[in-house]
Write a structure and sequence with these properties.
Blueprint lengths: L6 E4 L1 H10 L3 H17 L5 E4 L2 E9 L2 E9 L3 E9 L1
Parallel strand pairs: 1-5
Antiparallel strand pairs: 2-3, 3-4, 4-5
Length: 85
């Protein structure tokens, strides 16, 4: 586990996808809280898709399996989108 944590940045598309799944802001924040915690500490935890894009399977919500797509560099993790698997 790295000694310092990366900053999590939620891209506009990610926020749009999240609000479409969960209009309640508190519920939406709670849904992604564990992913933020985990990926800020170890962004290699997810699965590499292509180039700099990774994904992390999320909990089922409203009967849908959701995948979080993200990228990262030395200082930040960028939440790109949420897509129904």
């Amino acid at each position: 586990m790295p000694g310092r944590f990366r900053t999590v940045i939620r891209e506009h598309r990610f926020e749009k996808d999240l609000r479409a799944l969960m209009p309640d802001a508190a519920e939406a924040d709670e849904f992604v809280q564990a992913a933020e915690y985990l990926l800020a500490r170890d962004p290699n935890f997810g699965l590499h898709v292509e180039d700099e894009v990774w994904f992390l399977p999320m909990n089922v919500i409203r009967g849908m399996q959701i995948s979080l797509y993200y990228a990262f560099d030395d200082s930040s993790v960028y939440f790109l989108s949420l897509i129904r698997a």
